[in-house]
Amino acid sequence: MSTEGEYDCIVIGAGVQGSFAAYQLAKKNQRTLLLEQFVLPHTRGSSHGQTRIIRKAYEQDFYTHMMEECYELWAQLEKEAGVKLYRQTGLLVMGPENSQSYQLFKSTLQRNKVPMVILTRENFSQHIPHVNRAEGDGAVVDITAGILYADRALKAVQGQFQKLGGIIRDKEKVIDIKPGPVVTLSTSAGVYRAKSVVITAGPWTNRLLTHTALQLPLEVVKINVCYWQEKAPGTYDVKQRFPCFLLTEGEESKEHIYGLPSNEYPGLVKICYHMGSKTDPDQRDKQTDRSDIDILQRYIARCLPGLLPEPAVVENCLYTLTPDRHFVLDCHPTYSNIVIGAGFSGHGFKFGPIIGKLLCELSLGQVPSYDLSPFRIRRFQAKTKSAL
Fold it and tell me: N or C end of the chain: which has fewer CB within 10 A?
């Protein structure tokens, strides 16, 4: 059946970023439609799963600054929806004391006066039992960091969007975008028109942008999300105040390894390698590379003696990477009423409320609340043009 509709704004992609953008637009009294190609909720993109880390610990000041307001906006959503979305655990950041990455994490926390504790070789095991810290590694705790309940958060923001009069249509794939002063979208169910469109389609972003003669340097990778069994139940449990952790680099890897305490699966600790193998988002099961799991097994055997070094559960998730691992938050270079939020590079979930606000501002032609120069398309446009 053909469905036709006129909207102020249409958001394509109902993951965390699109859902928060739609919610912010509805708050501004914009008649907003949120489209999703799969039946909600689903596990095909980057916003599913029960938990994510929330932190102010970053190598760059601009992320730490954005997270200040982000914590407030998460608390606001908790209050509005009446659900608990955040649990404070702290984040233990470890890495070679003299390495650039570890020093940047530490100095950003210090410079921005984020509540933190520097752990010494003498007091480390007293504060963080059952973790072997490598010789020469430094350790610092971002005290305000913790866990976000991701599935619950997505459901909460979509519910609030609907309470504000927003419309969600799932199982409705966008098959054509016709730019213009009014953008026309054709989907598997009909045709819609809107003054502006926000594209937050994760791994499918470039497929949609094809209709607008733009391609971004985005790489889609499949991440193995691994859960590891405790030898003695409770050793790394959230109730025992075991923190989230991030290893900047180590003996096994130059990429980050991160973990969350035992929480969603009793007795299982979520530990992942912050990189994966290139994949087609529609044929992700064909990607069977397990080299990241081999790295994690070696790391766990060396540093987390209370875990069995064989994953008990392996789920997966997609990251959409930009070359510099910074987001894309910008208007289309040709069509200013098409706004793009993409390339969240495996660290965007926690920023959902602020990204939603920024995409809303761009869509309404307002001055963004933050300096978006790190996120502009022009930073890699010369390369994009030569690749076309």
Answer: N
Structural contact between residues 170 and 40, judged by C-beta atoms closer than 8 angstroms: yes
Between CA 13 and CA 22 the distance in angstroms is: 10
Q: What is the pLDDT of residues 312-325, one digit of tens each?
A: 999 999 999 999 99
DSSP 319: E
**Terminal CA-CA length for the chain:** 37
Give the number of other Cβ atoms within 10 Å of residue 98's Cβ.
9
pLDDT at 387 over 50: no
Taking the C-alpha atoms of residue 138 and residue 150, their distance in angstroms, rounded to an integer, is 30
- What Å distances lie between residue 227 and 238, 247, 258, 268, 270, CA to CA? 14, 17, 12, 6, 4
Query: Residue 382: which pLDDT band, with cuts at 50, 70 and 90?
Result: low
Q: The pTM is what?
A: 0.95
Cα–Cα distance between 148 and 71 in angstroms, integer? 11
For 57-82, give one letter per residue: b (16+ CB within 10 A) or e. bbbeebbbbbbeebbebbeebbeebe
**Where does the chain show beta strands of DSSP type E?**
3-12, 32-35, 51-54, 86-88, 91-96, 116-119, 137-142, 146-149, 167-169, 174-178, 183-187, 190-199, 219-230, 244-247, 257-260, 268-273, 277-278, 307-321, 328-331, 338-342
Q: In Å, how far from its chain's centre is CA 281? A: 16
pLDDT band of residue 3 (cuts 50, 70, 90) is low
Q: How confident is the model at residue 46 (pLDDT cuts 50, 70, 90)?
A: confident
For the chain, what is the total number of helices (H) and then of strands (E)? 9, 20
Distance CA 252, CA 146 (A): 25
